[in-house]
Structures are given as structure tokens and as C-alpha cells.
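Response to reviewer comment R2.3. The reviewers asked that we include at least one raw input/output pair. We reproduce the pair for DSBA-like thioredoxin domain-containing protein here without editing.
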Amino acid sequence: LDMEILILFGFQVFYNEGMDLSNLPYPKEYLDMMKANIKKLADDIGISLKLSEKLPNSRLALYLSEFARKNGKFDDFHKLVFDSYWKDGKDIGDQALLLSLAAKVGLYKNDILEYVKSEEPKSELTKSLKDLRQYGINGVPTF
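Raw output as returned:
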């Protein structure tokens, strides 16, 4: 299934998604400052975070989030994905993890495969990114 989904998408990775943080083209000091800022924001509002050492390729998570929205499961799916990344430090670019989370909220593999085979998720994401760029947003998540 994992390879089947990868082949279906045929997408290029956004920017540096999927890379270990240590391999990103930024000075270590910048990455340390970024992590410290995120940790401070979380501490200020009382959220416990476990930051991943990998910048996930979030495209599949975004596609499945839209699928969950269309099936009335967005809030539950979003919470599981959010907690997996921010609280558990998991790679939300991992297809097996995402399919497991989708199953927990009652979304089925065959339905997901049918959805991702269509142009709809790519079209929806492209439109959303275009809309967000009008507000100066060029990455997700954003604040």
C-alpha cells in the first residue's frame, strides 16, 4: 500500500520536507533558535511538545485531512495528526502512520486510495496554497 500511494501521488516534495533537521540548509544556530522559539510559545500557553528531528513531508497528511473533512471526521483526524507530530514527535509524512490514524477515526483504506487517485486532493491543495499566498503565507503549519 505504501508504494501504491507514493506512485499515485507522483508529487515533488515541498521545499525541504522529508529531510532531517540537521540536513536543512540553515545554520545550526538558526535551527536551535527556531526550536527554542517554538518551545517557548508552547510553554507560554501550557502545551507539552516533543519536537521531531525530521521535517515531515506533510502533503499526504494534508490530502487525508481534506478527505476527513469531506467525511465529517476532520476534527478527530486533525487532533490525532497534531498530537502525533507535536506531542509524540512522529513523522506525519509516514504513510503507514497516517493510514493508521485514518482508520482510528473510521476512514477506510480503499476509500482513501480512490480519493488520492483522483485530481481532487491535488487541486484542493493547490487552490488552498494559492489563496494563502495572497496573505503572505508560504508554508504550513503557520501562525
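The helical segments are 2-9, 28-44, 59-70, 74-87, 95-104, 109-117, 120-133. The chain has seven helices and no strands. Further pairs are available on request from the corresponding author.
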